[in-house]
Amino acid sequence: MAADRPTTVDAYIDAAPEAGRGHLRRLRALLREVAPEADEVIKWNAPFYVEPRYLFSFSAFTAHLAFAPSPEGLDPFRDALGPYAATKNYLKVRYDQPLPEDLIRQIAERRAEAVRQREDDGFW
Predict the structure, then answer these.
(1) How many domains does the chain have?
(2) Where does the YdhG-like domain lie (predicted)?
(3) How confident is the model over 63-113, as pLDDT tens digits?
(4) 64 lies in a domain?
(5) Closest among 26, 79, 34, 85 to 56, alpha carbons compared
(6) Does some domain include residue 94?
(7) Can you give the CATH number for the domain in which 12 is found?
(8) Are the beta carbons of 8 and 42 closer than 8 angstroms?
(9) Could you tell me if residue 124 is inside a domain?
(10) 67 - beta bridge partners?
(11) With 0-12 CB in 10 A as exposed, 13-18 as middle and 19+ as buried, what is 23?
């Protein structure tokens, strides 16, 4: 039911599996450090960071989180993803793994810089 869906990032994290809340809070803090001017909003039932274009988002699952900077945001880091699963669109970190903060910061900083240099009006 839509009324039960979180409408703030705080509520989103509070509704996430308890095992992942620490990772989610740290990821949120890291993304806010990288993009302090970004609007933090819930879109498609996940936290999004936009300024006004999409920078990145994350999602909570039962046993892992997914950090989604865009395919272009992940591509330069494919060799550094190591033990973390990744798809074309996101980096998957299990809650029983350490959060790769330095790697996520590098990905987020590069993504934010690329988005800020764009001249088109597209959201994505």
Answers:
(1) 1
(2) 21-110
(3) 999 999 987 888 899 889 888 999 889 999 999 999 999 999 999 999 999
(4) yes
(5) 34
(6) yes
(7) 3.90.1150.200
(8) yes
(9) no
(10) 58, 91
(11) buried
